[in-house]
Amino acid sequence: MSAQAGDAIxxxxxxxxxxxxxxxxxxxxxxxxxxxSGGAYEISLIYSFTSAQVRRGGRIHAIPCPEF
Length: 68
Prior knowledge:
This protein is mainly beta. The protein has 1 helix and 4 strands. Strands 1-2-3-4 form a 4-stranded antiparallel beta sheet, with no helix packed on it. The termini are close together.
């Protein structure tokens, strides 16, 4: 869990396999905005097309992505 700018508490969980990352998070509003925003779910799907190249020793130019 984390707090962001003092207006929400965020819970996150995820599953990571060889080529697929699946994540789910929920933002629970704790500020005065709670009356207009009940919170939000977020789903992330990240698929890596480069795993086969890594196994064969190929060169990869990847952009770093946050992990769970």
